[in-house]
Amino acid sequence: MKKLSVLFAAVMMVVSVGMAKAQKIATLDVIGVLNVMPEKKKADTDLKAFLDTKQAEIKKKADAAQAKFQQYQSEAAKKTAEENTAREAEMKKLSDEIQQMNDKAQKDFVAKQDAAYEPIEKKLNDAVSKVAKANGYDYIMDANSSAFVFKGGPDATAAVKKELGVQ
Fold it and tell me: By its UniProt entry, which PANTHER family does this protein fall under (predicted)?
């Protein structure tokens, strides 16, 4: 029984020493850092241009389909039932093509976005890791997170920006 008490006391001492070690926590304005990175600005510009191009292509096709639809509606009374049925099938096909273009554009955009942002995220994460190690931070948390109730620790944003070479 005495050995058990000594063992329990030793375990409690080890646990309390481990808990007594204060952890250094810093915050980081991730969005603020990303918004000043030239790579992010270029990626955003490229992605916007890509999206604008895709939207213009889809709009052109949709406008052509809308004009054809209006033409078919105005001529419907003068056409036979078979011609109107064929025109309806053609309009359905055009509608499906536009929907497929939309779906493909979204998939292409997401893939392009992932490819563009991956090296930026890696660069940011590497800088954060360097700053954390250099300053002895155990944790660096996003300052924009709504999970924070209190932010009183050091802010690592300036150090990460310096590491990245951005202002």
Answer: CHAPERONE PROTEIN SKP
Q: Which domains does the chain have, with CATH numbers?
A: 20-164 (3.30.910.20)
Which pTM value belongs to this model?
0.71
C-beta separation of 142 from 124 below 8 A? no
Q: Determine phi and psi for 101, rounding to 5 degrees.
A: -60, -40
As a whole number of Å, the end-to-end CA separation of the chain is: 64
Mean pLDDT, the chain, rounded, equals: 85
Residue 152 — very low, low, confident or very high, per pLDDT cuts 50/70/90? Answer: low
Angle 51-44-36 from CA coordinates, rounded to 5°: 165
> How far is Cα 25 from Cα 144, in angstroms, rounded to an integer?
15
Residue with tokens 């190690």: 133
Angle, vertex CA 158, rays to CA 153 and CA 161, nearest 5: 135
- Confidence check: pLDDT of 155 > 70: yes
